[in-house]
Design a protein that fits this description.
The chain is mostly helical. The protein contains 8 helices and no strands. The radius of gyration is 25 Å and the shape is elongated.
């Protein structure tokens, strides 16, 4: 056996122990958790965009509404414009101010949608609404989209919780501070009353 074998073995052991120590400091787990949260945020943005895409259909349905109620539709369209004008990149998910601006815009959109539902709650006042061929289809689309948004937000918040826990607990906290300079991500908080549950639009449109 070569005299250098113990030295080579020792070096291999040092490398193995060092690799294990580095891995234990979150070198792999931190970016994995971060990418998962970013992917879930992409799902949130897609769900909000799909809801915004339904507004042209809402406008068509509302054509039969009384003239004095047109202001509600105008509010929905304006809220949509504001909500779609504010976007968050994955790099913005650690910025509370930018997240709040996005949340405020989306919550304003949700509030305006409630007003639209109220407008259409008394369909007897707007008989033209009943004659629209896609009436039931639109109702189903809206309810389904609100559910998708709720699920997407729940999944995003869970991914953020896992990431934030990862970068704050030992030993990953070492890698988070020394290697990555990781910052906590901001969870999404829906402040609209009742936003934690998908609204029922049955009988309203």
């Amino acid at each position: 056996m070569s005299a250098s074998f113990p030295t080579q073995f020792s070096r291999a052991m040092i490398v193995a122990v060092g690799a294990a120590a580095v891995a234990g400091c979150g070198v792999n787990s931190i970016p994995t958790a971060e990418e998962k949260a970013k992917a879930k945020w992409a799902d949130v943005q897609a769900a909000f965009q799909e809801r915004a895409n339904l507004i042209p259909n809402l406008a068509a349905v509302a054509k039969g509404a009384a003239a004095q109620e047109k202001g509600i539709l105008t509010g929905v369209v304006e809220a949509r414009a504001k909500a779609t004008s504010i976007q968050l990149s994955p790099g913005d998910l650690t910025d509370p101010a930018k997240m709040k601006a996005f949340q405020d815009a989306q919550n304003g959109f949700s509030t305006s949608m409630m007003g639209f539902g109220r407008l259409l709650s008394n369909v007897e006042a707007y008989p033209d609404l009943k004659s629209i061929e896609n009436y039931q289809t639109l109702q189903s689309q809206l309810e389904g989209q609100e559910n998708r948004i709720r699920v997407a937000l729940r999944d995003y918040n869970e991914a953020v919780r896992q990431y934030n826990t990862e970068i704050r607990t030992f030993p990953s906290v070492i890698g988070a501070k020394v290697i990555y300079g990781s910052k906590p991500m901001v969870p999404y908080q829906a402040v609209t009353p009742g936003a934690e549950a998908a609204p029922s639009l049955e009988g309203k449109i």
